Amino acid sequence: MKILFITHNRLGDGVLSTGLLAHLARHYPGAEITVACGPLPAPLLRLAPNVVEIIEMTKAPLAGHWRRLWLQTVTRRWDLVIDLRASLLAWLLWTKARRVLKSRSRSGHRVDHAAEVLRLHPSPAPELWRRPEHDAAAREHLPAGGPILALGPTANWGGKQWPIERFTELARRLTGPHGPLAGARVAVFGAANERSAAQPLLDDLQADRVIDLMGRLELPVVLACLARCDLFVGNDSGLMHMAAAAPIPTLGLFGPSREELYGPWGDHAAAVRTDRSFDDIRNDPAYDYRKHDSWMNTLPVEKVEVAARNLLARDQG
Question: How much is the average pLDDT of 232-244?
């Protein structure tokens, strides 16, 4: 059986779709699955069971990436095409069956929305995969020796980034003598091009306890490193979704994005948002998605600390 699975370009959306991919591998154990996705989630999806090919859809002008995908798939005979992008492509390919996800802007979490394409209930939780060599690399970067707090201080848009000095203060509270992760090391994650945004955090944390993993690792090793941590706190980002799928206790920070749609998924996850609602932020006359000024200033450290403590207590209970 040959399956074409068309998923997203962004890392976070790609991770949220992996529950469906895992379901297909279990439901059709002999299937050969081709995944079409963006370059960012490709290293993670390549490790999914039964995936025999990844077609990276690098965005091109005038929808050129869709034309390239059509050329790479039109001569094949598919048994099932699943399109989470609601494109026309699925209707232009020879296939015995096709499932195209209908667009839906607001109602329900994106994991639930994706599950609708196969009418699955309950919705399959995101799953990520890694190999022994990834775990071995993670042990080198994060050797055993006490708890580890993981921080994701960056995001793909400055508006979603909590002020960096608040991450520093949060880390001190959580890992201090009276914190739930007393004495913990602090691992800082992010992409190489986000280093400048995270540098003040790296500089301010205690040098012998901070572990700089910014842009240093391939994504499967990042996943393996996250799995060795005791708590992740970070902005709404693909990294946040990876942490939740690791799975480790994951606290997502939200302001100009909707936690009911994009919050970290799972029993070990929670979200905390600014004192301002999403609608209040988006309706502010000063709001401009083209600017990178933070809209997370009304989220105090105290509120995040309480949410983190509650999450850890819930997870340990």
Answer: 98
Tokens of 85: 């992008």
CA angle at residue 130 from 127 to 132, to 5 degrees? 145
End-to-end CA distance of the chain: 44
Q: What ranges make up the beta strands (E) of 57-125?
A: 80-83, 98-100
* Side chain identity at residue 91, one-letter code: W
Three-class SS of residue 252? strand
Check residue 106 and give its pLDDT: 60
| The pLDDT of residue 315 | 87
What's the Cα-to-Cα distance from 165 to each of 108, 168, 172, rounded to whole Å? 33, 5, 11
Q: What is this structure's pTM? A: 0.97
Which of 176, 160, 156 minimizes the C-alpha distance to 305? 176
Nearest alpha-carbon partner for 13 in 86, 112, 88, 110:
110
Conformation bin of residue 62: beta by default, left when phi > 0, alpha when psi is -120 to 50: left
Which of 302, 284, 304, 303 is closest to 294 using CA atoms? 284
Q: Give the Cα separation of 68 and 66 in Å (integer).
A: 5
Q: Please name the residue that has the structure tokens 């390549």.
A: 46
Give CA angle at 101 (37, 33), nearest 5°.
45
